[in-house]
Specification:
The complex is a heterodimer of chains A (62) and B (182). Chain A is mainly alpha-helical and 62 residues long. Helix content of chain A is 66%, strand content 0%. Chain B has 182 residues and is mostly helical. The chains are: A mainly alpha (62), B mainly alpha (182).
């Protein structure tokens, strides 16, 4: 038995497609913004937080 | 509960990318850092629900994303954080890079609907696959794909880049020179 869906071809109507250059450029800007933060590493605030949580954890254990 | 070394190191190692994600989502460093801190606390409190061997980073991103979404809904009710205010707050940030283009990009990203913004960042910057991004956002892979496409199209519209000419070598040279000169 054939299902009607098997025949249903996806419509060929494409949304306005961005040029490859535009996509690449947007991607570059997004990455530049993102990498800028990545390169800041781990601020002290978070290293301290982990240390504090660790110390609490060890206290609980004893 | 004592923290397992592996868990602690994995969480700490994920901090830079969690911050990058959070800042891209909300456009505000202080708020982003609060989101990251809350994410770490929730992760540690719920570490039992993490399945060893699965992707810790994706798990942390999911926590951050869900927390951001619920905060966002709350904030909208509390302060009517209109897009205008949001854009102003971005404008007042110091331009560390000297690239006007860069600031405009951030602003345009802030104007995207939240679901399109998160999809674009996860796939386009965080390096997750469509499948992973769909898991993080709790939606279908096809939904992520169409959100990413719509996000790109809207960004291109807002930034007025419709063809290669807009980003020609002249533009880039000018941006670099403007950045270097000041």
């Amino acid at each position: 038995m054939e299902t009607p869906a098997a025949h249903g071809k996806k419509s060929d109507v494409k949304p306005a497609k961005l040029g490859r250059e535009v996509q690449a450029r947007l991607g570059q800007q997004l990455r530049a913004m993102y990498d800028d933060v990545l390169n800041q590493g781990v601020p002290d605030r978070f290293a301290d937080l982990i240390k504090r949580l660790d110390a609490n954890g060890n206290k609980d254990k004893q | 509960m004592a923290m397992d070394d592996t868990v602690r190191n994995s969480i700490l190692a994920a901090v830079p990318s969690l911050r990058a994600f959070a800042i891209s989502l909300c456009g505000n460093v202080d708020r982003a850092d609060d989101l990251v801190q809350e994410t770490m606390l929730r992760a540690i409190a719920n570490i039992d629900s993490f399945q060893p061997g699965t992707n810790m980073s994706a798990w942390l991103f999911t926590i951050l994303r869900n927390h951001f979404r619920s905060e966002y809904r709350k904030r909208r009710r509390e302060v009517e954080d209109s897009d205008g205010h949001y854009a102003d707050s971005l404008k007042s940030q110091p331009e560390q890079h000297g690239h006007i283009e860069f600031a405009e990009f951030r602003k345009a990203l802030g104007f995207l609907p939240a679901d399109q913004r998160e999809a674009l960042i996860l796939v386009g910057a965080s390096g997750f696959s469509y499948e992973e991004a769909a898991n993080i956002c709790g939606c279908a892979v096809g939904t992520i794909k169409s959100r990413v496409n719509r996000a790109r199209t809207r960004l291109a519209e807002m930034l007025n880049v419709n063809g290669a000419d807009d980003f020609g070598p002249d533009e880039q040279t000018r941006a670099v020179m403007a950045g270097g000169g000041e």
